[in-house]
Amino acid sequence: MNDASPPAWPITIEEIASRWHCGVRWLKLHAKSVGLGRRAGRRILFGEDEYNSLYQSLPRPQNRQAGSPLLRHLQSTLSR
Fold it and tell me: Tell me, what's the pLDDT at 18?
């Protein structure tokens, strides 16, 4: 999936990890701890609302830099 194309909902946790440049294992543990995502066979799926809730539940770094490439990428992903 190309990052420029809008996602087709629902999307998998692997797609989210790829977009956010984070580890799938960590993201699975975090999603489970906040009670987001639903299983479809072996896959964990997220609708658009769950995706936004997952983003909002991410831990906030103490020294958040507005110019951070990861922060800019995540903000642009959510604004789509």
Answer: 95
Tell me whether the omega of the peptide bond preceding residue 69 falls within 30 degrees of 0, making it cis: no
Longest dimension (CA), the chain: 39
DSSP string, the chain: --TTSPPPSSEEHHHHHHHHT--HHHHHHHHHHHT--EEETTEEEE-HHHHHHHHHTSPPPSS--TT-HHHHHHHHHHT-
Q: Give the contacts of 16 (CB within 8 A, at least 6 positions apart).
A: 27, 46, 51, 54
The pLDDT tens digits of the residues spanning 21-64 come to 999 999 999 999 999 999 999 999 999 999 999 999 998 876 55
